[in-house]
Amino acid sequence: MSAIDRPAGRKRHDRDMVYRWECRCQDPPVLLATYEPNGRINIKVRDRYWHVIGSVRAICPKCGADHLLDLSGNASRDATRIAR
Ligand SMILES: [Zn+2]
């Protein structure tokens, strides 16, 4: 297990830069996960968060749609398009 500690100031900045990965099958949209510009995907599973680097696939719990979020490389813009 490895941990990367970062200054509190940087952490707060990251929180401000979090994007929502969501399924827009209903209003309000179903939140699948959140992700950051640096490519880290944050998934809340019950009482803990999973931090994923790269790509992750999720099924919308409401409509069953298959979503793929790929943040490997410099593809955050494409990921937004795929999530729709
Ligand atoms: Zn959905």
Would you summarize the structure shown here?
This protein is of the alpha+beta class and 84 residues long. 20% of the residues lie in helices and 39% in strands.
Provide a descriptive summary of the structure in words.
The chain is of the alpha+beta class and 84 residues long. It has one domain. The protein has two helices and six strands. The strands form two sheets. Strands 1-2-3-4 form a four-stranded antiparallel sheet, with no helix packed on it. It is globular, with a radius of gyration of 13 Å. The model has no long low-confidence stretch (mean pLDDT 81). The protein binds zinc ion. The site of zinc ion has 7 residues, from loops. Zinc ion binds next to loops.
What small molecules does this complex bind?
Answer: zinc ion
Strand content: 35-45%
What Rg is obtained from the alpha carbons, in whole angstroms? 13 Å
Oligomerization state: single chain
Mean pLDDT: 81
Helicity, as a percent range: 10-25%
Shape: globular
The domain count comes to: 1
Structural class: alpha+beta
What is the tally of helical segments?
2
Element-by-element helix/strand order: HEEEEEEH
User: Strand tally, please?
Assistant: 6
> The biggest beta sheet, please?
4 strands, antiparallel
pLDDT under 50 segments (min length 5)? none
Spatial ordering of strands, largest sheet: 1-2-3-4
What's the end-to-end separation, in Å? 34 Å
